[in-house]
Amino acid sequence: MSAGRWTRQIVASILVNAVYAMKNYPVVLINTVLSPLGFLVVVNFVSKGGLLAQAIEGAFIMSMFSSGMGLQSDLSHLKNDFKLQDMVVSSPTTPSAYVTGMALAEIIYSLPALAVLTVLAAIYVHPGALATLQLLLVFLLMFFASVALGFTLSTFSSDIVQSFAFSRLISTLFSTIPPVYYPITYIPYPFRYAAYLSPTTYAGELAQSSTGLVQLSQAETAVAWAVLVAVCAALLLIASKKARWRDV
């Protein structure tokens, strides 16, 4: 496939999945802003401002993870209600071009929330250049992992209501219950081990460690990065091998 065609296919996906909705139904953008900021406000009030920086980083993680999982319900809607995937399958479009465009659309859709969080981070977190790079890598790994999971689940979903329910459930389980808005030290030890079953726990620790909010040893940092990379790679592999692209 030529680079020009690949680019056009990505742009078409962005127009379908982001620009159209943002232009015709701007009210839906409110949810993308309120979801991460709502938890941020609650944590900030409860901690009396003591966890504001951690909550901002957690809101970033939630926003990126939820954006990727939002791909599940969007793709399921387009596949089942508009039969778009059937048309894409019969065209020269590759799964990678289709999913890349739809994933970028989710990021564009989340720009209002990300813009607000960026301003808050600049004011209250003050990350340096190295910390900013580390944060970006953590957020991107979470996004890629959730995109791979969302795409795989969407190809098996046969109903938009079912898909939406799973998307919200997974986003809640991975981005609000684990300690991403607060340090894991707030969780008592008998339950702390269960928190480490979620990859977002490691993302939260790395984000907080990069800006000096928590202290991790070199071994703990290495393990956290290894877990995030391994989870992301495994989900991408599963998406490439198990997603039902043509058999739908």
Supply Rg: 18 Å
Name the overall outline: globular
Mean pLDDT: 84
For the sheet with most strands, the description reads: none
Assembly type of the shown chains? single chain
Strand content: under 5%
Our count of helices gives 11
Order of helices and strands: HHHHHHHHHHH
Terminal CA distance reads: 24 Å
Please give the share of residues in helix: over 70%
| Regions with little confidence, pLDDT below 50 for 5+ residues | none
Task: Provide the structure class.
Answer: mainly alpha
State the total count of DSSP E strands: 0
Count of all domains: 1
What keyword list fits this structure?
248 residues, mainly alpha, 0% strand, globular
What does this molecule look like?
With 248 residues, this protein is mainly alpha-helical. The protein has one domain (3-242). The chain is built from eleven helices and no strands. It has helices spanning 3-24, 29-46, 52-80, 84-89, 95-109, 111-124, 129-156, 160-175, 189-195, 199-210, 218-242. The longest helix is centred in the first third of the chain and has 29 residues, at 52-80.
